[in-house]
Design brief:
The protein has 187 residues and is α+β, with helices and mostly antiparallel strands. It has one domain (41-186). The protein is built from six helices and four strands, in the order αααββαααββ. A hairpin with a 5-residue loop joins strand 1 and strand 2 (108-110). The longest helix has 28 residues, at 120-147. It is globular, with a radius of gyration of 26 Å.
C-alpha cells in the first residue's frame, strides 16, 4: 500500500513537472490588405448612409445636391453605391434563379438559365443590371485604391480578390461562386 502511494505521488509530481511541447500558432484571419479594403469599404458605406439619410434643403425648401463639395471620385463612388442599392433585389432574384454568380474577380457573371430562355425581356434585364452592377463594383474598388495611400492602380487585381472573398462570404446557400481555379460551385 505504501509503495502504491509513493508510486502515485511520483507520477503526480512527474505529471506536474513534465510539460508537453505545445506549439500555438496564431493565424490572423485577415491580411493587412483585406483590413484596408474592408475599412475603406465600411467608410464608403458610412458616407453613403449619411448622404442617403439626411435631407438637405436650402432656405427656400429646394433640395440641395448632397454630393456637392465631394471629389469626382467620391461622387462616382456614392452614385455606384446608390446603383448597387437600387439593383439589390434584382440581383438577389437572378442569383436565386441561377442566372448569375459571383466570380473570382469580385464581379458578377451571367449564366444561361431557364427563366431567361423563354423571356427575352428578363434576359435583357439580367444583362443590363449585371453590367451596371459590375461597373459600380469597379468604381468602388478604384475608390478604395484612391482612399489608401499605400495602394496603386496596379493593386486592382489584389483588391478584386478581396472583394471576391467578401462576396463569397456574403453569398447565400445555393448561389453560384467561382473558385480560384476557375470552376464554379454552389455555396
Amino acid at each position: 500500500m505504501k509503495s502504491l502511494i509513493i508510486l502515485s505521488v511520483f507520477f503526480f509530481v512527474i505529471g506536474c513537472t513534465a510539460r508537453p511541447e505545445v506549439q500555438i500558432t496564431l493565424v490572423d484571419t485577415r491580411t493587412a490588405l483585406e483590413n484596408q479594403v474592408l475599412g475603406s469599404y465600411k467608410e464608403l458605406n458610412r458616407e453613403f448612409v449619411m448622404i442617403a439619410s439626411v435631407r438637405s434643403v436650402d432656405e427656400k425648401g429646394i433640395a440641395e445636391d448632397r454630393l456637392k463639395g465631394m471629389s469626382a471620385s467620391q461622387r462616382d463612388a456614392m452614385k455606384a453605391m446608390q446603383a448597387r442599392e437600387f439593383n439589390r433585389d434584382d440581383i438577389d432574384d437572378f442569383k436565386r434563379n441561377g442566372c448569375i454568380g459571383e466570380n473570382k474577380e469580385g464581379l458578377l457573371e451571367v449564366f444561361p438559365c431557364e427563366k431567361a430562355k423563354g423571356d427575352p425581356k428578363y434576359d435583357r434585364l439580367i444583362k443590363d443590371v449585371v453590367k451596371e452592377e459590375n461597373e459600380s463594383r469597379m468604381v468602388i474598388m478604384k475608390r478604395v485604391i484612391i482612399m489608401n495611400e499605400s495602394l496603386k492602380e496596379s493593386d486592382l487585381p489584389r483588391i478584386q480578390k478581396v472583394f471576391a472573398s467578401m462576396n463569397y462570404d456574403a453569398a447565400k446557400s445555393g448561389e453560384m461562386i467561382q473558385k480560384d481555379d476557375g470552376s464554379w460551385i454552389k455555396k
